[in-house]
Amino acid sequence: xxxxxxxxxxxxxxxxxxxxxxxxxxxxxxxxxxxxxxxxxxxxxxxxxxxxxxxxxxxxxxxxxxxxxxxxxxxxxxxxxxxxxxxxxxxxxxxxxxxxxxxxxxxxxxxxxxxxxxxxxxxxxxxxxxxxxxxxxxxxxxxxxxxxxxxxxxxxxxxxxxxxx
Amino acid sequence: xxxxxxxxxxxxxxxxxxxxxxxxxxxxxxxxxxxxxxxxxxxxxxxxxxxxxxxxxxxxxxxxxxxxxxxxxxxxxxxxxxxxxxxxxxxxxxxxxxxxxxxxxxxxxxxxxxxxxxxxxxxxxxxxxxxxxxxxxxxxxxxxxxxxxxxxxxxxxxxxxxxxx
Amino acid sequence: xxxxxxxxxxxxxxxxxxxxxxxxxxxxxxxxxxxxxxxxxxxxxxxxxxxxxxxxxxxxxxxxxxxxxxxxxxxxxxxxxxxxxxxxxxxxxxxxxxxxxxxxxxxxxxxxxxxxxxxxxxxxxxxxxxxxxxxxxxxxxxxxxxxxxxxxxxxxxxxxxxxxx
Amino acid sequence: xxxxxxxxxxxxxxxxxxxxxxxxxxxxxxxxxxxxxxxxxxxxxxxxxxxxxxxxxxxxxxxxxxxxxxxxxxxxxxxxxxxxxxxxxxxxxxxxxxxxxxxxxxxxxxxxxxxxxxxxxxxxxxxxxxxxxxxxxxxxxxxxxxxxxxxxxxxxxxxxxxxxx
Amino acid sequence: xxxxxxxxxxxxxxxxxxxxxxxxxxxxxxxxxxxxxxxxxxxxxxxxxxxxxxxxxxxxxxxxxxxxxxxxxxxxxxxxxxxxxxxxxxxxxxxxxxxxxxxxxxxxxxxxxxxxxxxxxxxxxxxxxxxxxxxxxxxxxxxxxxxxxxxxxxxxxxxxxxxxx
Amino acid sequence: xxxxxxxxxxxxxxxxxxxxxxxxxxxxxxxxxxxxxxxxxxxxxxxxxxxxxxxxxxxxxxxxxxxxxxxxxxxxxxxxxxxxxxxxxxxxxxxxxxxxxxxxxxxxxxxxxxxxxxxxxxxxxxxxxxxxxxxxxxxxxxxxxxxxxxxxxxxxxxxxxxxxx
Lengths: 165, 165, 165, 165, 165, 165
Known about the structure:
CATH superfamily of chain A: Molybdopterin cofactor biosynthesis C (MoaC) domain
Number of strands of chain A: 5
Largest sheet of chain A: 5 strands, antiparallel
Order of helices and strands of chain A: EHHHEEHEE
Distance between the termini of chain A: 27 Å
Shape of chain A: elongated
Strand content of chain A: 25-35%
CATH class of chain A: Alpha Beta
Oligomer: homohexamer
Helix content of chain A: 25-40%
Mean pLDDT of chain A: 91
């Protein structure tokens, strides 16, 4: 059975030693969705109604969140992020907004957690800005879409460990 | 149609003015789940195999994450948190770990975002610590379970805006 | 001659003891301006040209900056901010954007520094987002416009210590 | 007309992709001034009177502020700062203190924002420490004095976009 | 045997629930020392030789450190600090500098950790600023000197659990 | 007499300019101890009694603390940490827990302060988690055990500046 790399042989949590790994260009894309009532969806999408740019604020929050990753995820290495992009795709019939974050770094370890954190923070920000009208919104399906660079190579999500409900 | 409270009449983002609201005891509980491969689930649950306490680290991260909420969610008020509790319920047959965070404050506005952030950060930490063995883990169903205190009163989640897939 | 309150009798820097002051509602408004080339001004004001919302991002940054005040100003007390509002007034003929931030707290000491920091961070963000097209932008005239609440009472800026150039 | 680099073609805010830029030695110097009453100026300059080192504290704050730049400016890249220097030049006849910050990095993008932030935080700290005796102090003329390194080459401030009052 | 309050009945780490405790004025004083070579001691004490104010910088760092306590100590409550004071007593014959920090809050739980953190950060800053001339400096005897306020009442250190070497 | 490198020729605090130093692999180990009552020691060591993992939480805190070093130590350079390891050795007869942190970086300056901060934060966390049963615990003997890499070469602690009591 594989071993969890974040523990040493005595079960103690460690920040994995990447001192001798090469610095390469690495890229990771994470996705997620936030589900809501149709009225909430309309408020977000049609800025004429809401008179406010929820997604603009959530994008800024997601980008800033990516930079805070090593502050909030205990064993993450601090990384020199070279690019963050956060995109939203409203899915009209489903009252759902899909969130996608791509992070690039030149470094010794991957940017998956930065991409995940960007998605999570963007979703939390949407919830925060709309919670007064819709407390039942749900954040779901946050997963790694793709990553490249580094020794473990390319990963493309095939949904294998996704929940089957 | 209801209005988004985080924008003024000109559509500008604001931190909602709660200056004149009463300080009351408020409590919020958020839930979420992380889905994974059966092998990963066993590694997390059976510390004899993994030789490491993934959930212990994720709990600490979730509690600390709750405290960072106003730093990462743009329009959140800074709140004097008086209690944070983060619990994990492994669901054996489903290779799923359910996460539940309850936050209490004595303040002028609710603790929903703190509870959400605790769940999200705990889930991200589990992902981080296990990603070397299972990149396909998925974080889902983060939602507000219950809240009480404050003028808007009690809320209990009834799943209305949850995704139906 | 008046004494600087941030030092004790031996000249040592201290965080002023406000333990026994009353908690009252306090409000402070700070203003400032950023000057730029006419072309830059047009890019910011006319979102159709720039295809981006500089001021929206700067507003979010200013609000978040207000919350970081005790982290960056050494002797500031941590305060429970209850409201932040950041407004921009483009002054067309002068290629100047005026920035105004109002912060409210219920606390034992005033919110001036939070309002100042909001203005400064909003201005720095505008600079950052436009620096590729205009490195010569200048941030000026950051001052306290008004404050109320607390023992020292109301202050309204009369420009007395403003630079006369 | 030039384009704002912090937005993509759809007007969405992005952290500019610098992944493929070379790491070079870069340096930036920003300047600014704080204006005050003559009495305040004397209190700051003559430590025998004030019994406290306002500028020493402001210098520490400015250096620490430079390091917090990516935390507070939304689209700034995290940079490995290799040097920060903050200097103050009291201008006696004008009751003005000039602030100058020079930041060096070895990196893929410039250090202008770090230098600006150092100046702004140093100025805010001076205001904070003296506000009890002079609420009318004004922070002005924060601008980029000089920068070198990187593809855009050397910039020396010529005052073109400075306000003409 | 007494129980550790930071764990629930199942051994899970929690932020202790203080929601229903009264807000009272609380005060805590922590002390500690840093030991060094006589030459280093002289450099710090005699600013004419060192041409720099090590203790001034360490005092600012200690005060700021107190404010960061809930960010760095996992289960600490965020507290509204109302006063921080950091003092240094050079002990000439022993080449030792004693550090003492007093923190006051109006709150539901004590300020011990804030006082401890102020002492530790001040000591670390002295080490940092002098390490180029003396890598062997040692930080010792950080302990709670006194605390008052709150249900557990007054505590005065009697050295009982101090190491006897 | 040697000079303090953190001041310029005029006694002004600076972040030392390391722009032109080579990036090399650097490693630093700091140690420290926390002394307590025998009962407290047993509670920490025997998790069956305490029903909680004090040292697990302290280890996470120490690792995260290492990453916060440039935020809390004023003149520290931000460094790309590539490894952190925090170990505890309970010394049964002495009711003492020894703490040891090793930090590695690839960078232009050493990782001593990161190792020190990890030890200090781990010790403060142990104090925090046990203070309800033992307010008299003492943190002592935090010192640099060893460092390597960089121009100043290898350092091994020989206790010369340790306090002799």
